């Protein structure tokens, strides 16, 4: 069993991006500028955005954080999106999800300029990605595929089971792995809450991507010997063993599953760091497109 070290890979990619940024500086080009809009004080969102700001500083990006309280109106948020769309200094931006219930996430996402949509959530980017055209791919699926590439894990002709059908992870990663491409060409089964015989599907899988948000869901008796397991789960549960009072739990019962795997991602330290670095890669791409 080999651990897929997302921290190590993300650090390598950050160094690669930092070199690119230095070349841009040396040539007199504008350095990439990433903005984030954060509404409210959700713990997971706060942590993610803080990591993003720190990563931008580390690699030489400009970074802007715009904060609103939970009671911000949808109209005000749409005005902010429009302002960022038209700000020539901003290369890409994200509106951190989830948003308060009185704000339509779909309306906000569709208002973002697809050329600045470094989260890859806009229907234009999703559509282009689906047919294999150049696009901003949402950060977590892009990070998963990058880990598979960097560890040279064979996907061609393999059976991949994706547990979860969200627009953010499950659906896009299933499309990426089934496409005719390097580190694609897999036969993909998408499972969800209505799937019958889920255990049987998982037992036939060479690769399992667990992205359903249920801590410890995937057990040892659901995985065949030698399988590759990618754990996307990041559920924060209360813990008296950490300073923060919380501990991150994945969708995989690591202790049961890991002895059977050829490769497996830990939580934390697996997919999570790759989500941040994929956002940075998209921002660098956006800056180059604009330059």
Can you tell me about this structure?
The structure is a single chain. This protein is of the alpha/beta class. It folds into 2 domains: 32-99 and 111-119, Rossmann fold, CATH 3.40.50; 139-272, Rossmann fold. The chain is built from 10 helices and 11 strands. The chain has a 6-stranded parallel sheet with strand order 1-11-8-7-5-6. It has a 3-stranded parallel sheet with strand order 3-2-4, covered by helices on one side. A two-stranded antiparallel ribbon has the order 9-10. Helix 6 packs across helix 10 (271-290). The longest helix is centred in the N-terminal third of the chain and has 21 residues, at 6-26. The chain is globular. It starts with a strand and ends with a helix.
Provide keyphrases for this structure:
globular, three-stranded parallel beta sheet, 291 residues, 40% helix, Rossmann fold, 11 strands, alpha/beta, single chain, 2 domains, six-stranded parallel beta sheet
What Rg do the Cα atoms give?
Answer: 19 Å
Determine the structural class based on helices, strands and strand pairing.
alpha/beta
- Succession of helices and strands: EHEHEHEHHHEHEHEEEEHEH
What fraction, in percent, of the residue positions are helical?
25-40%
The major β-sheet equals: 6 strands, parallel
CATH architecture of the largest domain: 3-Layer(aba) Sandwich
CATH superfamily of the largest domain: NAD(P)-binding Rossmann-like Domain
CATH class of the largest domain: Alpha Beta
Cα shape: globular
The figure for the number of domains is: 2
CATH-defined topology of the largest domain: Rossmann fold
| Terminal Cα span | 44 Å
Task: For the largest sheet, list the strands in their spatial order.
Answer: 1-11-8-7-5-6
Helix count from the secondary structure assignment: 10
Quaternary assembly: single chain
């Amino acid at each position: 069993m080999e651990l897929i070290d997302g921290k190590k890979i993300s650090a390598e990619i950050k160094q690669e991006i930092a070199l690119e940024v230095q070349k841009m500086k040396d040539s007199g080009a504008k350095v990439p500028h990433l903005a984030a809009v954060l509404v409210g004080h959700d713990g997971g969102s706060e942590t993610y955005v803080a990591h993003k700001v720190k990563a931008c500083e580390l690699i030489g990006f400009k970074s802007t954080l715009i904060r609103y309280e939970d009671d911000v109106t949808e109209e005000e948020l749409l005005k902010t999106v429009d302002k960022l769309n038209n700000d020539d200094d901003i290369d890409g931006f994200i509106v951190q999800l989830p948003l308060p219930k009185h704000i339509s996430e779909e309306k906000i996402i569709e208002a973002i300029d697809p050329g600045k949509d470094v989260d890859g959530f806009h229907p234009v980017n999703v559509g282009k990605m689906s047919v294999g055209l150049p696009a901003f791919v949402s950060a977590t699926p892009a990070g998963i595929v990058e880990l598979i590439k960097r560890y040279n894990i064979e996907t061609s002709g393999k059976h991949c089971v994706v547990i979860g059908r969200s627009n953010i992870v499950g659906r896009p990663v299933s499309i990426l792995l089934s496409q005719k491409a390097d580190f694609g060409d897999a036969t993909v089964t998408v499972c969800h809450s209505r799937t019958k015989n889920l255990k049987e599907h998982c037992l036939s899988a060479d690769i399992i991507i667990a992205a359903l948000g249920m801590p410890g869901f995937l057990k040892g008796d659901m995985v065949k010997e030698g399988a590759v397991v990618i754990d996307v789960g990041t559920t924060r549960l209360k813990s008296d063993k950490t300073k923060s009072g919380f501990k991150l739990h994945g969708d995989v019962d690591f202790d049961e599953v890991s002895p059977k795997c050829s490769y497996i991602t830990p939580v934390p330290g697996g997919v999570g760091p790759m989500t941040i670095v994929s956002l940075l890669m998209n921002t660098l791409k956006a800056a180059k497109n604009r330059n």
